Amino acid sequence: MADPDEHAPDLPECPSAQGTGLLPDELRAWMLLLAATGAVEQRLRAVVKERLDVSHDEFLVLCLLAEQPREGLRMTRIAELLGRPKTRLTYQIACLQHAGLVTRKSVCGDKRGVEVALTDKARRLLRDASEALATTVTEALAHVMGPDQRNAVCGLLPDLAGD
């Protein structure tokens, strides 16, 4: 695991973390969190494509399903949780199904409901790629978040800062 302070000296001082602007602490922390998320996503794209051969958006669907029971989730719930339009999600699910990574089935008693679940192939791929994916996330966060940025984000969840 990368040392979080390893790249801190390379970072410019974070004006948002100083608290001298117009934003309240919570909004300042949220903006820092968004910047960190963007850095992680940018680095993950290549690793996800290389290891899983799926798009980043398809990867998010796989991750969401990986945290669910084997019976899966309804497509409407996946769209809600990922903040994606249902039509876009339908295309992504079709691509994942074509790759043998998810299954789709009608929900009993609801002719319009469709439930999506991971296949064993997808579970194997995620398990095999998990170390590389976790390392990518850790390194991306360590690269963009120095002590000032971490302190500002901890301000968003002060109860976690002491844990």
CATH secondary-structure class:
Mainly Alpha
Sheet with the most strands, sense and barrel status: 3 strands, antiparallel
Euclidean distance between termini CA atoms: 19 Å
The CATH topology comes to Arc Repressor Mutant, subunit A
Give structural notes.
- It comes from Streptomyces aurantiogriseus.
- One of its GO terms (molecular function) is DNA-binding transcription factor activity.
- This is HTH marR-type domain-containing protein.
- Residues 26-162 form the HTH marR-type domain.
- This protein is mostly helical and 163 residues long.
- The chain has a single domain, classed as Arc Repressor Mutant, subunit A (Orthogonal Bundle).
- The chain contains eight helices and three strands; from the N terminus they run H-H-H-E-H-H-E-E-H-H-H.
- A three-stranded antiparallel sheet has the order 1-3-2.
- It is globular, with a radius of gyration of 19 Å.
- It starts with 14 loop residues before the first helix and ends with a helix.
- Mean pLDDT is 83; it is low at 1-9 and 11-17.
